[in-house]
# Entry
Amino acid sequence: MGILKVQNVSIRFGGVLALDSVSFEVKEGEIFSLIGPNGAGKTSMLNCISGLYKPTAGDIFFKDERITHVKPHKRAALGIARAFQNIELFPHLSVLDNLMLGRHVRMKTGVLAGGLYWGKAQKEEVEHRYKVEEVIDFLELEHVRNVPVGTLSYGLQKRVEVGRALAMEPDLLLLDEPMAGMNNEEKEDMARYIIDIHEEKKTTIILIEHDMGVVMDLSNHIAVLDFGKLIAYGTPKEVQTNPRVIEAYLGEEHAG
# Structure
């Protein structure tokens, strides 16, 4: 069953057509990768799915609900979370506080209600704190839980970025180059966490990643973009042997 359907989505920035009538479907419970050369439109597509961009044309459906013009925070409440390529954390706040911010879409007790019904607000705070502690344990961040994020290594910051999105308890997790700039050890760790999120949390994942070894190992299906157009879709094996993909992106050494 498809959890996300992208139908003929286009987006234009001035005279540049960043996405040109792109359509694909992501099945519930899979790892789905978007690949392509730099400037192919991958991040623009994630921005359309998460609500940061509004498509010029086309529609996006999440769990069969049309979300094309739904605002980002409402999409988050529906179950879509995003980790960014460029780290978007609050550097002076601790790991714990950054992850607590990821819980905002789940908070039901407002400021006024909190003032009137302190017990209810306090109970909700404890529940959210418990969920965040689960994420800290899951991503092995216990040793830095109270450390300001800005003082952490790049690899740990990327892990916290994923953790903040995971704290939203998403059904669909969008990961934009989660391994960019990492060394081999950090990449191996992140790949393991992605597999664990997928298998243990039963989370559907859309992944943008330039490391083709990682993409081919992790993905159930892959969509390939080139100059804003969808040029291929299929299993890793099908994509690896697609002549258009080899010519546009992979090169002969990745074929076969």
